[in-house]
């Protein structure tokens, strides 16, 4: 995943904790998760649209 290992992810997590604090982490995680879900859905719709156009 982007060449990131466990130490790099740990450093990123610590920086995020310092910036936002532990109380905001669930909200941030939920926002990122829903954003990734929407991106996946949109990607699937585009792939289906392109495959239908090819037929």
Automatic annotation (TrEMBL):
Topological type in the membrane: Single-pass membrane protein
Pfam family, one: TatA_B_E
Gene Ontology MF terms in the entry: protein transmembrane transporter activity
InterPro entries for this protein: TatA/B/E, TatA/E
Keyword Cell division set for record: no
Alphabetical keyword list: Cell membrane, Membrane, Protein transport, Translocation, Transmembrane, Transmembrane helix, Transport
Location in the cell: Cell membrane
Biological process per Gene Ontology, one example term: protein transport by the Tat complex
Cellular component GO terms, alphabetical: TAT protein transport complex
Residue intervals passing through the bilayer: 6-23
UniProt cross-references to NCBIfam families, sorted A to Z: PRK14861.1 (NF011430), tatAE (TIGR01411)
HAMAP family listed in its UniProt record: TatA_E
PANTHER family the UniProt entry points to: SEC-INDEPENDENT PROTEIN TRANSLOCASE PROTEIN TATA
UniProt family annotation: Belongs to the TatA/E family.
Function: Part of the twin-arginine translocation (Tat) system that transports large folded proteins containing a characteristic twin-arginine motif in their signal peptide across membranes. TatA could form the protein-conducting channel of the Tat system.
Subunit comment: Forms a complex with TatC.
Name of this chain's protein: Sec-independent protein translocase protein TatA
Organism: Halonatronomonas betaini
Gene: tatA
């Amino acid at each position: 995943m982007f060449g990131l290992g466990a130490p790099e992810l740990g450093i990123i997590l610590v920086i995020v904790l310092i910036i936002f604090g532990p109380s905001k982490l669930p909200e941030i995680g939920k926002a990122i998760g829903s954003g990734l879900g929407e991106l996946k859905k949109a990607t699937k719709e585009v792939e289906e649209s392109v495959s239908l156009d090819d037929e």
